[in-house]
Amino acid sequence: MVVAWLLIIAIVNLLIGVFLRYIMVPVTDYFDWPSVEFTWVEEVGELALAWLTLIGAALGVADRIHFAVGVVAQRLSLSGRACLDRILHGLIAVFGVVAAISGVQLTRINSQLTSPGLGINLGWLYVGAVVCGVLITVYSLRIALGFAPHASTSGHGA
């Protein structure tokens, strides 16, 4: 649901940006009115796209629709594939931890800055990496520890 709302925000924001740039700017120029400020549109789009991408990546791990190369897995038995799947998701969980820690560091560094258009703390942009890392870690550990259905029963392969 969050991803759907982020996508809606991004699309509506894009339409507003196009309207302001290609319709309102010529109108204000024609009537010699003060120009319409729309620098905030780019920043809203950047925030929505960043969060959409990061949360989408975590959901891809949860649904097992992330990128995988099955060259080795195809040569293993069913139990070997299950073991490999758990090992790989354990490694993905390590990546999630690294992403979360790096996200915390980026958030701390950038929390002193504000965006010029919206005037909000830039930490909100980078805290998405923390959320993504935590979600990837949780979803991967759920699979690696056997709390999620096996890949063959969920319809996705390793």
Short description:
With 158 residues, the chain is mainly α. It has helices spanning 2-30, 39-62, 78-110, 123-144, 151-154.
Topology overview:
Elements: H1 2-30, H2 39-62, H3 78-110, H4 123-144, H5 151-154
Secondary-structure class: mainly alpha
How large, in whole angstroms, is the Cα Rg?
Answer: 21 Å
Number of helices: 5
Rough outline: elongated
How many domain units? 1
Characterize the main sheet: none
Mean model confidence by pLDDT:
90
N-end to C-end Cα span:
26 Å
**Helical residue percent band:** over 70%
Proportion in β-strands: under 5%
Along the chain, the helix and strand elements come as HHHHH
Low-confidence parts = 153-158
Number of strands: 0
Structure notes:
This protein is mainly α and 158 residues long. It has one domain. 71% of the residues lie in helices and 0% in strands. It contains 5 helices and no strands. It has helices spanning 2-30, 39-62, 78-110, 123-144, 151-154. The radius of gyration is 21 Å and the shape is elongated. The chain starts with a helix and ends with a helix. Residues 153-158 have low confidence and may be disordered.
